[in-house]
Design brief:
This protein is an all-alpha fold and about 425 residues long. Helix content is about 75%, strand content about 0%. The chain has 18 helices and 2 strands. It has a two-stranded antiparallel sheet. β1 and β2 (about 315-320) form a beta hairpin. α3 (about 25-40) runs parallel beside α8 and α7 (about 120-130) crosses α16 (about 355-385). The protein is globular and about 55 Å long.
């Protein structure tokens, strides 16, 4: 933990990191808050699902556009107005629901709020790159940021649940305030200003690199494809975990502990991965991490199917399974999640044109969001027809295909800059890709 603490002691890292964390809490709070508010006020999960889906799809579509504008005009000029606009639209959505406005108006507000939702994660990575000159410090900071995002999906819903005793619109209004205040505060930091030039390395904003679309590069496109496949597995895994709490454990409230188990494993795995001085091409570690994640998902399916021990079949599940069996397997399954995400983000940084780093990271986020939505739909069908075990097997299949794509992509990543190895000693100058 020494390297992480050393990084966080720096003011030019600590304050942007904290502000970006606040600005990203709405990633997990906004969709859940929309569902709870619309269902509570309208009594319709269908309407809640429609507006939340529009928010997710529009935010995925808008991220690459804002990423390109970040590279072209700098973070302060783009993120400040963007966070304020999305926060105001989200607050307007909450007020409109409480006032009983029509579904059409809610759909418009949800879509507009999603389209203006800022790509803070992409911006944060470029900002960290601009203030940390040593390669090992950068990699550790990237790992710490990935782990922070993992905790957002635990802390965000917890904060939202604490606000449910307040008037109906308050949880979503607090979410909008966090987005506006956190995002604006981040845009005012020195790190965001230093990352104002394209790529965060002082390169000119107007140059040949700005004319190259990251997805036109085979290496970047293949990383995004792997991200989509991994996210399809995530979506199915999330639905299966929720179904496991209700059907297998018989207690819906235990779903938080199940998610905490896999997220805790992911956080620990990410901290461990980022603290090490790896040697050899990082691209080769991605198929290994995905294969281990796939193995954990198969193990979860086998537990639910009773392959490890005699059990009595009851519908789609096996009787007698408790948290003492599921939590350790979930924890071990999560150990390779953050390392895989860290490697994907590092590959996109190495493969993207220097003047389009924010856009490259935004495309990675778009692929992950889109894949997660597809995986949720697939997982719902699998769980409905054959139980949570089938959902985990479907997730394992998607991740396995992602691992195979990562193997086939090795030559493209090697030619495009993914061959760069991590040195054993810190260095002050980044090798040209």
């Amino acid at each position: 933990m020494g390297r992480y603490l050393q990084i966080l002691r720096r003011r030019d890292v600590r304050w942007p990191f904290l502000a970006a964390y606040l600005a990203r809490l709405p990633i997990s709070m906004a969709p859940l808050g929309m569902v709870l508010l619309v269902q509570g006020e309208r009594g319709s999960y269908a309407s809640a699902g429609i507006v939340t889906g529009l928010f997710a799809v529009s935010s995925a579509a808008g991220a690459p556009v804002w990423g390109r504008l970040l590279d072209r005009f700098g973070q302060p000029l783009v993120l400040g107005p963007l966070c304020s606009a999305s926060g105001l639209l989200l607050a307007g959505f909450a007020v409109s629901v409480v006032l009983g406005r029509g579904d059409g108006e809610l759909c418009v507000l949800a879509t507009a709020s999603g389209l203006t939702f800022p790509p803070v994660s992409a911006a944060t990575r470029v900002a960290l790159r601009s203030v940390l000159t040593q390669e090992l410090d950068r990699r550790a900071a990237y790992a710490l940021d990935t782990v922070a995002v993992e905790t957002i999906f635990m802390g965000g819903p917890l904060l939202l649940s604490l606000l449910l005793t307040a008037p109906a619109a308050v949880p979503l209004l607090v979410t909008s305030a966090l987005l506006a205040v956190g995002g604006t505060s981040y845009a005012m930091t020195g790190a965001a200003r230093r990352a104002g030039a394209a790529g965060g390395d002082g390169s000119a904003r107007r140059g040949p690199d700005l004319g190259r679309w990251p997805l036109r590069l085979p290496g970047v496109m293949l990383v995004v494809l792997v991200s989509v496949l991994m996210a399809v597995g995530f979506g199915q895994c999330d639905v299966s975990i929720a179904a496991t709490a209700e059907e297998t454990l018989g207690h819906r409230e235990q779903v938080g502990w199940l998610f905490a188990s896999i997220a805790g494993g992911s956080a620990l795995g990410g901290l461990w991965y980022g603290s090490r001085a790896w040697t050899g091409p990082e691209r080769r570690r991605l198929p290994v991490a995905l294969a281990l994640f796939c193995t954990g998902l198969v193990a979860l399916a086998s537990v639910l199917a009773g392959w490890w021990y005699p059990g009595q079949r009851v519908g789609h599940v096996v009787a007698g399974i408790g948290m003492e069996r599921l939590a350790p397997v979930l924890f071990c399954t999560g150990l390779c999640i953050s390392p895989a995400l860290i490697i994907q983000a590092n590959l996109v940084e190495e493969l993207s044109p220097p003047g389009r780093l924010s856009e490259g990271q935004a495309w990675l986020a778009t692929g992950f969001t889109s894949g997660g939505a597809a995986g949720t739909a697939i997982g719902g069908w699998a769980v409905e027809t054959a139980g949570p075990g089938r959902g985990f097997l479907g997730a394992a299949l998607a991740v396995l295909v992602g691992a195979l794509v990562a193997v086939l992509a090795q030559p493209f990543w090697a030619r495009g800059g993914g061959h760069r190895t991590l040195p054993a000693q810190p260095r002050t100058k980044r090798r040209a890709t």
